[in-house]
């Protein structure tokens, strides 16, 4: 563990915020009128310090000693008891919430960068805050004033924490099959009975109460997803005389292979018939409410995938600069000194690939954060609608890119450490374990492929909006002096990707199974293309800066590094798109036609 | 953990041995004259039983309780004390060694399949045998009769075990930099002083003695690889009066993230000035001796990569058949029953990809084993030479394919298990950890890329021999009725791969650094092409069998599955080759030109 690991590059965060994604322009929107670049940077600086000084040093101890489950309760790592108030004090739970609910009303663009530092430092520790924010936001968006008063405010203040309780053992990803029951009681609350699994932060000993935002089926509701409602179920019920036991119990702890600071639990409601839940919003709308939250959670997972790849990238970069081994190619004098392994071209390949994934992924996640800001707070309705459409389209892509390519990146960080990387004396293996969850939770990569091709890419105007954005970037890139061949490659790949969807949808409008056959490859195509787009944006900004004359040798090196990483992605990854498009158009049918008994 | 996990498919092993790789033809060679198909099958059956009944049930306990290091000694899992004699009794240490050293003189083709079952069942447990075999084989090949008598025979009998002691902390992969010293003593032995790291099985409590086959530098020897000699260094020295302490100590245990049944140690020789080593062969030849062993060890690693992917594939296949979730695409009736997840096309994609990697990799490893048999025991000198050349060429490819694509395959097995796969209650995460080492030990993937492009592919006649083999397969495939488009794709990809090497070598004969720039991509190209070749061979055999009318519905299903997996690889993976070839020919220079300070 390198004490000086920066988690993320500060220079890169500043570049992406202000030179690529024009965060300063957000200050012109009325919602952010109270802010200026200083308040943005102050929040980022505070988050960075907390991440580096408090969360990161606690990461290894929390990974080594997972929470314990004794006496029916979960006891988390003792360090969390001092970390939790610091996270609340930073205001990360409500950074982007409105002033009137106690938030700081910062753009998601800024808040998400702060979160990225905290995630890179200590994913498990941060996530108590992230989960609480998501759960409280559901109440803010859909709950009654009474629920906001009694639940949301305490959660935003960090007095209580929150969870999302969706998954049931028998249903898995198929949320329409959940069975947790809700029966209306005389007092207007619901008697809840059922069990949930994989509830992150479902119990702990760092705050007074836990509110589970839970999907359940009101007795008599229709089968399938239309019969599902959303409930707030507190561990301790806030009654007249204070908090009383609400028959919520921890039935087991999953032995996760990563995220070991955060317990993942089996939670039972109403084992003794005494569990009360409060309906959030309208009956039967549970899944649509939850999907709004899930879209935010997916971007949070994407960000955390990038952050987890980032911290490992920086660790392997430092290692490659320090570790000496072998001689430069062609210089085989055995008496000469060994060189740092960064001098070996293939080690630089592994580093540049990580850089391309980390900084390309960060840019894609920043793009989604900025779209969310404009979708919610833009001053033009068309722009708001267009931003929402693009955000919807990019969400499964950004989440899956960070999960899948982030995992590749984390594996390279381990590989660069050689035999040492294979030991738990070094941290890359821990980050590799952490990263693996991201292709599973908040929708598996399979689900996101189906969701992208079967729904989001078909939304009227969505692909056209993306196509226009990419073409605009191409024009700007050309004007800034980016090599024409790279600009043309970008245009062609984006055009092929957009045309592919239209072709598949046209061909198989009556046969969704056939239409969706290559959903995984379509997702891969869009991951590769959208990150290429982000690299072209970064290359454009770097070219501009270089043509104006960078202010220091370090700045010069920074921009040259950007151009190399952009080149890597555009020339090494983007060419993967054409054969994938052919595969989809040809409807290659090997797995589609393989019967279960043929394996 | 599925009790019925077959580890490898018996049907597939029989198919590959007798329908694809014609193991029966080996019986015509004088070296194997004492065998017949019954003795082959009996050995396989015994290995299979031991693997399933003894090694596999011990896998999880051994993964959960790694060896302990107390009182200066390593104590391995108690189950190893009963497993070790069973492995010796099976004769796996000497299965392919000659009768005159106590072996069974079986072809590697047969022995390696037996090893694959044992590795799939319990990698760590098997490897005590594999390491002992490798170390003893070094003495058999290069040691004096005296050394054979005093060391090799006891090792082959399983009374003592063996290790390979190469790596030193400061040198890593750069073996020319090792510093362990050897000084000739009056009695003809050498006083040894130095430290080694990552010594697998370097200490344990399952046999009486351990012999470390160690690279060291005789005082006064030249710097670099030419000054390195090979020594046998026993933990207890076999003197006149029996075994006496030989000043070999365990200085530390690496906390590996996998292979937890087998300790990886820091071993010090001669801390008290009392360590004696015995020279093996001629001074200064240590590295060339070791490379012969390492080539065998690399194929062992390849086989274990395939085996580790295989056991996980079978686990995820059983899970996908049992686990019910969701509805078939297009049938969204929420009242209908949930379907086994194998009904979902993307789950079948993940299974078929695993099958293609596992059975394609097994075929490639079997091809190398058969080449080794013919190279050593063939009755025609030209054929022996040609086989040795091909074996040399395929070794880094087969090892790296199993390590890299095997890791992808293991990740898919975890993914199919969803959230459960992310917990240590299920085994896929353990196999994923095990697999990760294979891209690091016995040469990192980087090293194998450099070795392939910089040396093996340039050996006169090597690529031509591979090209001829592939063309022959193409002719047979066409005759058997394999689709012409697939045969043509194979020919084109193989042709492009072979031509690429000639072009790079011609262009940059004076600039090895430039020539080797895309060594990683070249390795990827050859991995993809050679496994496509193996799938074409399997498709050919399956087509033949289907045209003759399979003997049962199960057989019919088996052959149809082979055709689907072959189609998957030839149409989904093989098209990756063309853009990779372009990348290499264009000499894409992003990472080559990135300076260390630009990251």
From TrEMBL, chains A, B:
Highest taxon in the source lineage: Bacteria
Keywords: FAD, Flavoprotein, Oxidoreductase
Ranges where the Acyl-CoA oxidase/dehydrogenase middle domain occurs: 164-262
Entry keyword Electron transport: no
Domain Acetyl-CoA dehydrogenase-like C-terminal positions: 469-591
Residue ranges constituting the Acyl-CoA dehydrogenase/oxidase C-terminal domain according to the UniProt record: 284-450
Domain Acyl-CoA dehydrogenase/oxidase N-terminal: 42-159
InterPro entries: Acyl-CoA_dh-like_C_dom, Acyl-CoA_Oxase/DH_mid-dom, Acyl-CoA_Oxase/DH_mid-dom_sf, AcylCo_DH-like_C, AcylCo_DH/oxidase_C, AcylCoA_DH/ox_N, AcylCoA_DH/ox_N_sf, AcylCoA_DH/oxidase_NM_dom_sf
Cofactor: FAD
Pfam family, any one: Acyl-CoA_dh_N
Family: Belongs to the acyl-CoA dehydrogenase family.
The protein's name in its UniProt record: Acyl-CoA dehydrogenase
């Amino acid at each position: 563990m390198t004490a000086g690991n920066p988690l993320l590059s500060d220079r890169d965060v500043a570049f992406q915020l202000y030179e690529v994604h024009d965060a300063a322009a957000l200050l012109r929107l009325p919602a952010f009128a109270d802010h200026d670049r200083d308040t943005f940077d102050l929040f980022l600086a505070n988050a960075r310090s907390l991440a580096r000084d408090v969360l990161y040093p606690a990461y290894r101890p929390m990974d080594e000693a997972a929470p314990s489950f004794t006496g029916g309760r979960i006891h988390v790592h003792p360090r969390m008891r001092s970390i939790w108030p610091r996270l609340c004090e930073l205001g990360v739970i409500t950074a982007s919430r409105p002033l009137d609910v106690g938030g700081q009303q910062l753009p998601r663009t800024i808040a998400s960068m702060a979160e990225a530092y905290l995630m890179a430092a200590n994913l498990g520790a941060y996530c108590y805050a992230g989960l609480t924010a998501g759960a409280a936001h559901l109440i803010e968006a859909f709950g009654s004033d009474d629920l906001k008063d009694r639940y949301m405010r305490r959660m935003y203040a960090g007095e209580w924490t929150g969870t999302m309780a969706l998954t049931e053992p028998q249903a898995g990803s198929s949320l329409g099959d959940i069975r947790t029951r809700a029966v209306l009681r005389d007092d207007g609350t619901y008697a809840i009975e059922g069990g949930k699994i994989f509830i992150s932060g479902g119990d702990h000993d760092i705050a007074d109460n836990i509110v589970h935002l839970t999907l359940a089926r009101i007795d008599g509701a229709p089968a399938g997803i239309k019969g599902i409602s959303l409930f707030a179920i507190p561990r301790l019920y806030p009654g007249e005389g204070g908090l009383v036991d609400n028959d919520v119990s921890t039935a087991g702890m999953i032995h996760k292979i990563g995220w070991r600071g955060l317990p993942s639990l089996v939670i039972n409601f109403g084992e003794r018939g005494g569990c009360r839940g409060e309906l959030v919003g309208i009956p039967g709308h549970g899944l649509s409410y939850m999907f709004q939250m899930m879209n935010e959670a997916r971007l949070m997972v994407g960000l955390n995938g990038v952050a987890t790849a980032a911290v490992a990238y920086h660790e392997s970069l430092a290692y490659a600069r320090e570790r000496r081994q072998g001689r430069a190619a062609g210089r085989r004098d055995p008496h000469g000194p060994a060189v740092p392994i960064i001098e070996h071209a293939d080690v630089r390949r592994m580093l540049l690939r990580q850089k391309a994934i980390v900084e390309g992924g960060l840019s894609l996640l920043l793009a989604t954060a900025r779209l969310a800001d404009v979708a919610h707070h833009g001053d033009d309705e068309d722009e708001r609608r267009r931003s929402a459409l693009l955000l919807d389209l990019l969400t499964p892509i950004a989440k899956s890119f960070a999960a899948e390519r982030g995992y590749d990146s984390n594996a390279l960080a381990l590989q660069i450490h050689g035999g040492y990387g294979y030991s738990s004396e070094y941290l890359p293996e821990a980050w590799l374990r952490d990263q693996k969850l991201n292709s599973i939770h908040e929708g598996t990569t399979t689900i996101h492929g189906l969701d992208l091709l079967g729904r989001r890419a078909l939304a009227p105007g969505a692909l056209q909006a993306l196509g226009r954005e990419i073409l605009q970037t191409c024009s700007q890139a050309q004007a800034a002096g980016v090599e024409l061949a790279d600009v043309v490659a970008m245009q062609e790949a984006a055009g092929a990707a957009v045309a592919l969807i239209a072709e598949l949808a046209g061909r198989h409008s009556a046969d969704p199974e056939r239409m969706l056959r290559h959903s995984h490859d379509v997702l891969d195509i869009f991951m590769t293309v959208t990150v290429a787009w982000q690299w072209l944006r970064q290359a454009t900004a770097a070219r501009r800066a270089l043509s104006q004359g960078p202010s220091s040798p370090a700045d010069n090196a920074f921009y040259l590094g950007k151009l190399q990483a952009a080149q890597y992605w555009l020339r090494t990854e983007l060419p993967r798109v054409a054969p994938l498009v052919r595969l989809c158009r040809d409807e290659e049918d090997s797995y589609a036609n393989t019967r279960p008994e043929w394996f």
